[in-house]
Every structure is written in C-alpha cells, then in structure tokens.
Amino acid sequence: MSDEGAADVGSDSTTVGILAASSILGKELGERLFAIDPSLAIRGFSGDPADEGELAEFGRAATLIEVLDLQRPDPELLAGLDLFFVPVAVSAAVVSALREALPPTAVLVLVDAVGWSAELAGPELGDLDLVPVVAGLPLAESSESAQVLVSPPASLVCQALLLDALRELVPRRVATTVLEPVSVLSAEAVEELLGQTRAILAFSGEMPTDLLGGQQAFNLLPVAATETAAALRRLTGVELETASQQVVRAGVFHGVALSTCIEFEQPVGDEALAAAIEVRPGLHLHPTGATSRKGSAGDPVAVAGEHSVHVSLAPLRGPGDGSRSRRRWFWVLADNLTTVGAWNAVSIGLPPTHEVN
Amino acid sequence: MSDEGAADVGSDSTTVGILAASSILGKELGERLFAIDPSLAIRGFSGDPADEGELAEFGRAATLIEVLDLQRPDPELLAGLDLFFVPVAVSAAVVSALREALPPTAVLVLVDAVGWSAELAGPELGDLDLVPVVAGLPLAESSESAQVLVSPPASLVCQALLLDALRELVPRRVATTVLEPVSVLSAEAVEELLGQTRAILAFSGEMPTDLLGGQQAFNLLPVAATETAAALRRLTGVELETASQQVVRAGVFHGVALSTCIEFEQPVGDEALAAAIEVRPGLHLHPTGATSRKGSAGDPVAVAGEHSVHVSLAPLRGPGDGSRSRRRWFWVLADNLTTVGAWNAVSIGLPPTHEVN
Asked: Which among A33, A101, A306, B294 could disulfide-bond with A75, CB atoms 3.0 to 4.6 Å apart, if both were Cys?
C-alpha cells in the first residue's frame, strides 16, 4: 500500500505525511490541509502495527494508514514526502531517526500540544536544532532553512501572538495560568472525561482515571510550572525580564484559556492596549468593560472552531485607577485543535505557495 | 415564634443569629457553630417572607426561621444576639440598618464568598468601618472593638495566610488566578451546573443558565480582575509592591483553587519555602516535586471537608535553576465552605472562650 500511495503523488504536487493520523490532532491536521488545498497528497502514518489497514479520514479525504517502525523508519516509505507532521509525543531518538529517514529537503514539523518538546531539547538530540515557530511572527522567516520545526504548545502560541501585538507598549514581566482542555491529551481522554461525568451523575462509584490521572470531571488538576521567558524571547524578540506559567487541566473538552498578567515598563491605558490587539492579524479583541459575570468576555466553548486567538482585557477593579496601571490582566482563548494546533502547524510547515488563513 | 426563640436563650450563653440560614453557607455556619459548642443558641433568619415557618437545619440542630425586614429590621427581634452572620450579598443600607438594630455589643460578621464587600465600601456606608479579618493573622487582634467584621472571600483568606507564612522571605509581587467553584454562588447554582451537565450528556439542547450566566458545564467563565495589594497589606502587614488577581469560575462544585505567582525580594529555595509553609498553623504543605500529572499536588475535590489550606510548591521547569528563582508558583486549595468560609467567619466572630480549630 505504501508504494501505491507514494506512486500516486504527482511530481509537482506537495506530499504531506501525518504520523498518528487517526489521533484527534492528526485528523484535524489532515482536514485543515485538505481544506486549504484538495490537490495536496496527504498520507496517513502510524507507529502502531495494529493500525495496519485502518483508514485515516480527513473530512472528505481518506487514506489507508501506513505503518512506520519509529525506531528505524524505512527511508523508502518516506520517499517523496515534502512535509511530515508529528502530532504526538516522541523521543529525541525518534526525532533523529525520522529526520535521517526523510528526504533531505523535507521539513519535519513536531506539533507539540502539551510541552513535551521542551524536554526533548537535551544533549541526546545531537546536532538537530529544534526551531519553535509561531506563524506570523518575525522569526518564522529565519526558520526556512531549519530541518525540524516545532509548533509550540497552545499556551506559547497565544502568549507569543499577544506579546508581539503589545511589543510597542514594552511588556516586561508575564505570569500566566494556562487552563488546558483534556483534548490536548487525546480523543480517548475526552471519552474518559465523559465516562467520569456519567459515573458521578449515576453515583456508580466506577470512575475511569487511566488517561486523566485522577478525577477530572467537576475538578481541576495541576500539571506543571515552567519558565517561559527564554522561549517567548526567542519567538517574539521581546526583551522580557521574567516570564513563567503554571498549567492546570480543567474539565473542559476543547479550547485553551489563559489568565495572563503582564507588567509593562510604564502604566498603559485601556485604549492603547485595545488598539494594539485590534490591529493584530490572528487576534480577535473582545469589547473591554464587558459584564463578564455573563461570560461575555468569551469562554473555551465559545471559541470552538474559531480561527483566531480571542483576547479580552479585564477591567481592573479596586482602589486606584486600574485602567492606567503597569500590570494588566488578559483573558486569552483559542481552540487548541484548530487555531493554535493545526492552524499554526500547517502555517509554519506548508510552502508559501499555499494560502493559509 | 421569634419571641419563643429569643426566650429560649439563657443569659450567660452566647446567642448567634444567621441570616439566609437555609443557604449553602448559612447551613455550613450553623453546623460549624453547633459542632464547636452545642450549648450555643443558634437562631436562623431570612429576609424572605416566603421562608416564614420553614426550618433551618444545622446538622443535628434545627430552628424555625425568623423573618426579618432587611430595610427596617426590628430591634426586638434581634435583641439578645451576641453575634450575627450575614453570608449573602447585602447593600450598604442593609448593613447600616442591621448594625443599628443589633444590640450595641453585638458583632456583625459579613461573610463574603464572592467579593461583594469591596463594593460596599463606598461613601454611603457612612461611619461604619468594614474591617476585613482573617483568623490567626495579627490584625485580628485590632478588630476586637470593631462593629462590622468582614470574613473576606476565599481567595484573600488563602493568599493572606500564605503571605503571612512567607513574610520572612519578603514577598514583593503577587499575581493570582483564582478558580472559583459554583458553590460560591448558591446551592441552586450547584443544581444548575448538574442540570447543564445532564442536558449536554443527553444532547437535549435545553440548558439552564439563569444563575450561572452561561454554559458552565465543561467550561470556564471569567469573572473579574481586581487589585488586591491594599487588602492583602491591610490583612497581613506585608509590604507588597503590587498584587492583583483574576477570578475565573470553573465547572467545579466545591473547593477554591489558586494558581499564585509570588515574586520575592531575593531568590528563594524550595527548602526555605517548604519550611515556612510547613510550620504555619492553618496551612498544609503537599510534598514538592510530586508527579503532578497524577494530581498528587491536590485538587479541589480532594480538599472537600478539609479544615486547612493546602499548598503545593510547583517545581519550576525550564532553562536555569528554577528551584532558586525570585518568582515561584504555588497551587493553593481550600474548601470554600468549610475552611475559608465558615471556619474563618466563625473564628473571627466567636468570643475567644470558644475553642475554634
């Protein structure tokens, strides 16, 4: 099957491979690619022999899954690929092996939903330089010759876009709490959350926790705190003094939410912030001063399927004139699968001849 | 009935009134008081004439609810009270009227689950000085002569206790995302969350949103951002440079969670932080370095019914030695009804002769 798949590819069309093609993010990538250009040749791969002969469906496109030995991938199987997406956690050894087996001109894109790429960047990766790229940011240009691109986790994509929009206002410190949905893990984790919820409503006492690691239904689970200053500086060029984030997984299916506190060099007013966000492509500004008790500042459910990052500026209550403070709070939302998942990965990976928006 | 209720009270026992006695927090207050001292005379009140003749149940104690005209409360009805708890949002006019109608020696305790007291502190409150108090903090002493005490919202109680524990390490900046459960609103809001969840699982399309203001099931709703430096300084005496928080309501029944970033004057190590938290009464330290993917750093469900504030120190991943950084992340949990709701309110309100722990 793999030979036939490769043979189908016309020499002048772009051929794209997707590992874990039947995963939640793998499917989204395939659908997004097909929507952009139905003439793209999209091939679905899997590292799991059990997937042999299964179908990977990308909306109206479908392909038989080709099984790849991830430790020793067969260069013949990967011949003809221009672009290879890896939307699952893999080891540094697998990244190296894939890079070796792919054609020299191919671009390998690691799509990192949960931050595993930070742990890859150890010495064992040898000479492979992982280049994190957010579409639309200046550094995207310098990545054209890179071998391995990383589409960063949703939290970094969102913060990089916001900081880029606000760069003229000189942001200095960032403290972000990231509220992750369970779909950053897998489609099965989404099912487990549903199963947990049913178990609680039925008082059945049988609650599956294999994938979520604990009760996630009607609950919050802390994940990790991370220094992000170096990554955000690299992505945006903004000279941050400090930046860090704590990730918490919420009982939400899709949509990542960031509660971000940014301290600026000088006090900044609502108008300047709103104006900077409003003109930035890729960001959508919610009206400030919204009666947010009603949820009108936006929520994870409301951004499902959206293709921009939604930002609202929280009016600061309390003593003093909170609307001209150095420290401002933002509520940032994005669909982790479409906006900051597949959209970013596809945008940084596809050759410029393909219009992505 | 109210006369009989008042007549029951022995002259040397403490008599306590609870407004909104059948509300979720009113019940918790009554149960807590009864548990501390079954000889306390506890009287349940309501501002709603429809509650006339209803029973307020506080565990094994019960009382007929006495109806109070909140705009013009009858001093005779409130005669004999030593302590009066108000666990619902009321206007400044109602606070003044209650203060006037209560015996001069009585203490009025506003129990503020959601931050409404901050909005009361306007000029219309006249000479009434609202004194926010957290049990066990130094300022509690100076509040002994105060007429109106405020038991602050869970987020402030938690942060004040944590800052007090860390004061020797000189905390300077605080940025907190508060994840509130729906029980800060009402028992009916908890029911509405259940109803929303059932509607989603049944694909019924009928989703009640009257109390929650939007889809809260499998979703997060932003509430507000607030300056907190003045309040935290007043509660703890710690000279913070800046402090602010953003409140987000999560689809959680009980238990408030804080994702808190504190910047210290100097870099601080894990050991110093852990030691300071460990010795502080009222705080419970979770082991650091926990594999938090498994939720072992604690979660809102796990602290249900607990009587201390649980704190875990998030190990900081990423470039640099995150274990000796000036900025550290904390994950702080408390039962919003017991620990930082009823426990704090009862502790600041009861005369010292009653042992509260």
From this structure: A101
Q: What is the dihedral of CA A264, A268, A274, A277, to 10 degrees?
A: -20
Rounded Cα–Cα distance for residues B79 and B76 (Å): 5
Give A177's contacts in chain B (Cβ within 8 Å).
177, 259
Could you say which of A242, A253, A297 has the minimum Cβ distance to residue B327?
A242
Q: B108: closest CA among B32, B232, B16?
A: B16
Per CATH, is A157-336 categorized as 3.20.20.10?
A: no
- Got the DSSP string for B198-230? HHHHTT------TTTSS--TT--EEEEEEE-HH
In whole angstroms, what is the distance from residue B245 CA to residue A101 CA? Answer: 50
Phi, psi of A223 (to 5 degrees): -110, -60
- Look up tokens 């109803």; give the residue: B195
Interchain CB contact of B289 with A (< 8 Å): no
Tell me the sheet residues that pair with A259. A177, A331
Complex-level ipTM: 0.90
Domain segments of chain A as ranges: 2-152+340-349, 157-336
Q: What is the CATH number of domain A2-152+340-349?
A: 3.40.50.720
Task: Name the CATH superfamily, with its identifier, for domain B157-335.
Answer: Dihydrodipicolinate Reductase; domain 2 (3.30.360.10)
**Cβ distance of A225 and B315 shorter than 8 Å:** yes
Which residue of chain B is at minimal alpha-carbon distance from A190? Answer: B218
Q: Is A175 helix (H, G, I), strand (E, B) or coil?
A: strand
Phi-psi region of B296 (alpha: psi -120 to 50; beta: other; left: phi over 0): alpha
